[in-house]
């Protein structure tokens, strides 16, 4: 399958933008709920306002996390794969596990776990902070990587690097 890393990068930015919009609306709603006069505690057992403020705080934190991921991904210089340097942040990779299952990954500075769909093919974002991301840095097409996940060794072969 012919994957275009520039198109994947654009899809990641678009998805982060949508996620940011959703998170900002959720944070605003949680804030309004937390500060609404009907939610002022009438006694020590009335915790709706307190719970709403915890939710608003969590939503605000999520907005900041997405903003950070979006900024880092926007500032990522997407360059062609360098056969001398191997896999770097910004690489689009095809991997095959020891059971022959194929997957596509995009190595980004942030937004780990984000998934985008490219013509029916899921592409998952990973970062160099993950065991797999760290082990892929500097590798080349055809290289094998070994990762320890929850005490179990997993083996992958880099089938494609862009």
UniProtKB/TrEMBL annotation:
<dbReference type="InterPro" id="IPR036953">
    <property type="entry name" value="GreA/GreB_C_sf"/>
</dbReference>
<keyword id="KW-0648">Protein biosynthesis</keyword>
<dbReference type="GO" id="GO:0032784">
    <property type="term" value="P:regulation of DNA-templated transcription elongation"/>
</dbReference>
<protein>
    <submittedName>
        <fullName>Transcription elongation factor, GreA/GreB, C-term</fullName>
    </submittedName>
</protein>
<dbReference type="GO" id="GO:0003677">
    <property type="term" value="F:DNA binding"/>
</dbReference>
<dbReference type="GO" id="GO:0003746">
    <property type="term" value="F:translation elongation factor activity"/>
</dbReference>
<keyword id="KW-0251">Elongation factor</keyword>
């Amino acid at each position: 399958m012919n994957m275009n890393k520039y198109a994947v990068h654009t899809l990641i930015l678009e998805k982060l933008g949508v996620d940011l919009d959703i998170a900002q609306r959720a944070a605003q709603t949680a804030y309004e709920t937390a500060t609404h006069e009907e939610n002022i505690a009438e006694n020590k057992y009335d915790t709706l306002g307190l719970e709403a403020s915890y939710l608003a705080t969590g939503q605000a934190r999520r907005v900041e996390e997405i903003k950070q991921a979006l900024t880092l991904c926007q500032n990522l210089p997407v360059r062609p794969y360098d056969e001398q340097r191997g896999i770097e942040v910004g690489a689009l990779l095809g991997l095959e596990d020891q059971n022959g299952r194929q997957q596509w990954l995009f190595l980004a500075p942030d937004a780990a776990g984000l998934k985008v769909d490219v013509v029916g093919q899921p592409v998952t974002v990973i970062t160099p902070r993950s065991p797999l991301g760290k082990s892929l840095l500097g590798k080349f097409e055809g290289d094998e990587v070994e990762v320890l996940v929850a005490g179990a060794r997993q083996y992958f072969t880099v089938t494609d690097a862009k």
